[in-house]
Amino acid sequence: MTKHIEFYFDFGSPTAYLAYCRLGQLAKQHGLAIQYRPMLLGGVFKGAANTSPITVPAKGKYMLEQDLPRFARRYDVPLNFNPHFPINTLNLMRGVIAAEQLDCLEAYLQAIFKAVWINSKNMGEIETVTKVLTEAGLDAQGIINSSQTPEVKAELISNTEAAVARGVFGAPTMFMDDAMYFGQDRLDFIEEALGN
């Protein structure tokens, strides 16, 4: 029987990128079906009265210099800290909803995560986003136009509010079999559950 996992994320989180990579590996190994739940991390932080770990200088330094590189090595995936961090991901997250509607979600996710956390692109610039999507073989203008519709904008707000109402306080957050898992460093528990 196929297991389903809901993945709440924001492209601006390096740990969400690592979780995206690892969940992809687990999906291949265990037939895991991933339901992507885009949200605005800033809105989640505000709604849950939380802040980014980067705001604590010692913790931010540890995460960027030691913890994240360790997990990238463990998962055998590339990771480069983006010099443009933090990036305003509002339009990128709206783009997730638009890409799903246009039936190109997987390619969109791969292109954006790669641009932000491997190629260190400034994805807060529309020109860069357009170039990245076009180079990935996607209809950049179609996705961008769709992402600006009132319906897509409202859906992202609704997703973010629903995440907070569900108990989400940061990214990445996963739900499987009604159990919540916060942080890419908790994916071992998901793997353990898949093995059972």
Automatic annotation (TrEMBL):
EC number of this enzyme: 5.99.1.4
Catalytic activity: 2-hydroxychromene-2-carboxylate = (3E)-4-(2-hydroxyphenyl)-2-oxobut-3-enoate
UniProt keyword Isomerase present: yes
GO molecular function: isomerase activity
Enzyme type, top EC level: isomerase
Gene3D superfamilies documented for this protein: Glutaredoxin
Sequence ranges assigned to domain DSBA-like thioredoxin in this UniProt record: 5-194
Keywords of this entry: Isomerase
Family annotation (Pfam families): DSBA (PF01323)
UniProt KW Metal-binding keyword: no
PANTHER family assigned to the protein according to its UniProt record, in alphabetical order: GLUTATHIONE S-TRANSFERASE KAPPA, GLUTATHIONE S-TRANSFERASE KAPPA 1
Protein family membership: Belongs to the GST superfamily. NadH family.
Name under which the protein is recorded: 2-hydroxychromene-2-carboxylate isomerase
